[in-house]
Amino acid sequence: MADKVIVAGVSVDTRHWIGGRRVASAETFTDTSPIDGSTLGEIARGGPAEAEAAVAAAKAAFPAWAATSPAERARVLHAVADGVEKRLEELAIVETTDNGALLRSHRRGVMPRVAHNFRFFADRLLRLEHEDFETRGHTNHVSWDPAGPSVLITPWNAPLMLATWKVAPALAAGNTVVLKPAEWSPLTASLLADIAAGAGLPAGVLNVVQGYGSEIGDALTSHPDVRRISFTGSVPTARRIAGSAAARLTPLSLELGGKSPLLVFADADLDLAVDLAVEQYDNAGQVCLAATRILVEETVAEEFTRRFVEKASALVQGDPREEATDVGPTIHPRQLEKIDGFVRRAITAGARAVIGGHRRDGQYYAPTLLTDVAQDSEIVQEEVFGPVLTLQTFGTEEEAVRLADDTRFGLAATVATGDHERAERVTAQLVAGTVWVNCFFVRDLQAPFGGSRHSGVGREGGTWSFDFYCDVKNTVTAPNGWKNHG
Q1: Shortest CA distance to 164 belongs to which of 124, 126, 120?
Q2: How far apart are CA 268 and CA 363, in angstroms?
Q3: Structure confidence by residue, pLDDT tens digits, 270-313
Q4: Which of 66, 141, 239, 297 has the largest count of CB atoms under 10 Å?
Q5: This model's pTM is above 0.90
Q6: Catalytic residues
Q7: DSSP 277-299
Q8: What distances in angstroms separate CA 191 from CA 1, 11, 216, one per listed residue?
């Protein structure tokens, strides 16, 4: 196979990055663009042998990286951020070609956020401290010890941003990393390896291995030398990973799916509420945090729906490389089939498509709003991960909260209301890791991120990331216990 492919004029190495060098595999898998279905290249397809090599490289590199001073680790992470910023345009066009998200979003938001991920955790590392305290005259000192080699498994919907959301704090903590990107969007992880090496990250500190699901994932998550596992993806895969981790008591962090609600009360600014609802079509609905269940108070439901249809119908769907495009393609033919299956079954069960409800040419699915859906129906209870929203109505605040909390998920929720006291009452009752009031997708790396129920285990972000990626140690020292050797 060719060692490199050219994507939109950018050269991308298709081999693994293990121990500071490129490593080929005997087998490959085909990477295609969701924009037009074209083949981008053949990617090295790793398995147990590559997993073993990557973990071995991470283990060998760990002692020196863990012993590197926080100031030096922070310097290297800032150098990685510099490298990202220098290649921002290349990263943006490669990722758009590989996963179909809007190029304008990658240029203006996503790739700058990638650089920010490294800068934030580099700076947070240098401010990481606990005050010493005393217990009956004994001094307690809390330290943050690097845990060891960490396996990070990341999704395809925001490949590089979500990868670096894990890579940056793991490296800042002094851990070494084996990154396994999603097989449907592996290319920018390969570019990250080049950038990190150019920034001076020592060999073996970051390793990138590509492959399909359990073929390589099982070997990584069950490896006895792995000290942390962080995964973002589906609930079924999480169960498999949790089983592997449980056998060795390996700490793990899971950020899983969502079926988040948007509660629109009659006292809300309806134009704002409609804007929030239409925003859920971002990235063709392939966002774990998306508020796909719109719950609207009965007295304003008709007007809300009218305004929503008007605004959503004006969205431009097409080539994500075009500036005017609002909604791009779905990532893969299998995902398109899944989305279409959900909608067809819902319509057969009695749902009505107010807009959309059908495929378009290629890998594009029309932005869809379904009404007349039952609370216990599949379309309301299960994550579709596509541009498909449902609309239900409620009569009272109590009913709104009941409907909002009535799924097995608990990742996020959004509330639109003009009443501050109502906002406080409702948000206190919502089961979610993140709640937005009159806004959506405002994220700060200082804040904890994660889900409740089947939406995940644990929290990352800010100090919570260091809680996870470190072994937090308390050293208790007795007074007057020293001998004078002078």
Answers
A1: 120
A2: 36
A3: 999 999 999 999 999 999 999 999 999 999 999 999 999 999 99
A4: 297
A5: yes
A6: 255, 288
A7: HHGGGGGGG--TT---EEEEEHH
A8: 19, 9, 21
